[in-house]
Amino acid sequence: MADIWQRAMDHAVAIARKAGEVVREALCDDRKVMTKSSSVDLVTQTDQRVEQLIIQSVKEKFPTHRFIGEESVAAGEACDLTDSPTWIIDPIDGTNFVHSFPFVAVSIGFSVNNQTEFGVVYSCLEDKMFTARRGKGAFCNGEPLQVSDQEDIKQSIIATEFGSNRDPEAVDKIFSSLRSILCIPVHGVRSAGTAAINMCLVASGCVEAYYEIGIHVWDVAAGSLIVSEAGGVLMDVEGGEVDLMSRRIVAANSRTIAERIVKEIDSFSPPRDDAP
Ligand code: IPD
Fold first, then answer.
1. Among the four given CATH numbers 3.80.30.20, 3.10.129.10, 3.90.79.10, 3.30.540.10, the one describing domain 6-144
2. 17, 28, 57, 159: which has the fewest C-beta neighbours closer than 10 Å?
3. Residue 159 CB–ligand 1 contact under 6 Å
4. Complex confidence, ipTM
5. Which fold has domain 153-264?
6. Ligand 1: which of 54, 92, 161, 220 to mutate, most ligand atoms within 8 Å of CB?
7. Distances (CA, A) of 37 to 41, 71, 77, 95, 145
């Protein structure tokens, strides 16, 4: 049977590549940095330009589709995931871009009936195009991806991020989880500075798991499918099913590793992305 979303996925790959070119060019220029929810939540004109570039080009081809975009939500648009075909866009992982820290990704997830149909993460500076189509596997530049088969947490590397919440109570919990996980002990803890690339590292088998509290749906919509299609598992930080609007995620190579991490996480619940 023909894959009805293949044309949309092909478009996502093409537009992510084009967006990556804009990002690479912009890295050569001065960046005017603005702040959003706090002084460490950064945005540049390039984030806004890239999001508009993606949205406009999708609207021309798929006029009935809906959007959740990081910068559109920051500008006051709703963050509602309905059953309608919806493109979930993170135009750029912002802070890394501002500092030219060399992991910058464009992330595009596509959801229908609350199910992610495809995910595309373009790591612009590495020129790596990560893709996954539901039920059809995950790929990097066309090569199949497979999570690591390591089930011993003590032989593992775990990725996480510190996010942009500087509320001391939240920071204490983030450090408490980090301490517990580090002292299991694991081989190491890493941060690429972008949720999307951390998830692609899980899918590629370079790290056994990634967890974070505070991410947004646009950070993880595409990466989640890339992890699960590479054979990994997704879980909430307290166990149970992941909810992409909850701003909490564990993405791991296996249930064993995910459950072990869950045991160590000092959890909390940031306001949901779809909170009214
Ligand atoms: C952020 C990055 C960061 C993660 C934050 C995200 P943004 O995305 O992915 O690694 O810690 O939770 O919001 O805001 O730079 O696009």
1. 3.30.540.10
2. 28
3. no
4. 0.91
5. D-Maltodextrin-Binding Protein; domain 2 (3.40.190)
6. 161
7. 6, 12, 15, 13, 35
